[in-house]
Automatic annotation (TrEMBL):
Pfam families: Glycos_transf_2 (PF00535)
Keywords associated with the record: Glycosyltransferase, Membrane, Transferase, Transmembrane, Transmembrane helix
Protein name: Glycosyltransferase family 2 protein
Chain segments annotated as transmembrane: 215-236, 243-264, 270-289
Length: 319
């Protein structure tokens, strides 16, 4: 090792969310370990697996790796809280100079980490993988592409297109992200919102190295709706924008009824009135429910201390 000692090297914490990934944890670390070794002269690298309530042998695989490599740690949640909440909780329960998110299925290549570090050394605060392509059906790729472009148009703050959770950022950015108290964390939206100096690294996402994906169409739809609600207040404001046209339509129908006496105009008027009021109440209810849950300020996840292994100083700080 050169003159940079462990005490003075910046700490890079790699956060790896996983749920029932028994078959890929070891293969993932086989790809990650050479990368860690290649930068260990400049950075003290720690790997923290975010065990999202796995019910298979994922934890045993991680603990097996931990016996060989002391800088491997694990946070085990009390149940499967979902991908976004596990990332959010991981940030809130770790202390580091730099943070990096990467999935254990190797769809995001560990080999890009040195490139991220080069950009950090050039002065960037946020370096993220920009997914220009991925190994999946064209229809699904198109749906993802259109969703994020729609989200960009709807969002109150900036949205970085084709951004992946696969990315690196500084402790200052981490502090800005966790300042949110959101019942549904949307990490890529938070990273876009906080600003700082950013750089995207284009890459093609690969197929999983093993195991089964935990995503399905319904889950993606729920994620998309919740993501829009987290990033945009457009639907809360939409009834105000529509109000002049609604009044104009109702006025026209009322005039038609007074002049012709046709009952269908009254029926259509009642229908238009009900649609507007019902839709407005539905949107208001959604945002009120979200605001209520945010106001409770509940933690994103609860940690299973028995199956969690962190450095003593970090564990004591989180106790």
């Amino acid at each position: 090792m050169n003159s940079i000692t462990q005490a003075t090297r910046p700490v890079l914490t790699i956060l790896c969310p996983c749920f029932n990934e028994q078959g890929v944890v070891s293969a993932f670390f086989d790809q990650l370990r050479p990368v860690i070794e290649s930068v260990s002269d400049r950075y003290h690298v720690k790997t923290i697996f975010l065990n999202n309530g796995s019910t298979d042998g994922t934890l045993d695989e991680i603990l097996g790796l931990r016996m060989k490599w002391p800088d491997i740690y694990v946070i085990t949640f009390s149940k499967n809280v979902g991908y976004q909440r596990s990332l959010d909780s991981g940030l809130r329960n770790t202390i580091s100079d730099l943070y990096l998110f990467i999935d254990v299925d190797c769809e995001d290549p560990p080999a890009l980490i040195p490139v991220f570090l080069e950009k950090y050394e050039q002065g960037y605060d946020i370096i993220y993988g920009e997914r220009i392509d991925r190994e999946e059906p064209e229809a699904l790729k198109s749906a993802r592409r259109y969703f994020y472009r729609l989200l960009k148009r709807l969002a109150d703050d900036e949205i970085l297109l084709d951004m992946a959770e696969f990315g690196m950022f500084t402790a200052e950015v981490r502090d800005a992200i966790i300042s949110d108290q959101n019942s549904f964390p949307f990490i890529r939206s938070s990273i876009s919102r906080v600003g700082f100096r950013r750089c995207g690294i284009p890459f093609k996402r690969q197929r999983r190295i093993g195991g089964q994906t935990h995503y399905n169409i319904m889950g993606m739809v729920i994620f998309a709706v919740a993501g829009i609600l987290s990033a945009s207040t457009l639907f809360l404001r939409l009834p105000i924008y529509i109000l002049p046209f609604w009044i104009l339509v109702l006025t026209g129908l009322m005039i038609a009824f007074l002049q012709t006496g046709a009952y269908w105009t009254a029926i259509v008027g009642l229908y238009v009135f009900a649609i507007y009021v019902g839709t407005a109440l539905a949107f208001v209810s959604l945002y009120v429910a979200r605001s209520y849950k945010n106001g409770l300020q509940r933690p994103s996840a609860f940690i299973n201390r028995r199956d969690t292994y962190l450095e003593p100083a970090v564990a004591k700080a989180n106790a």
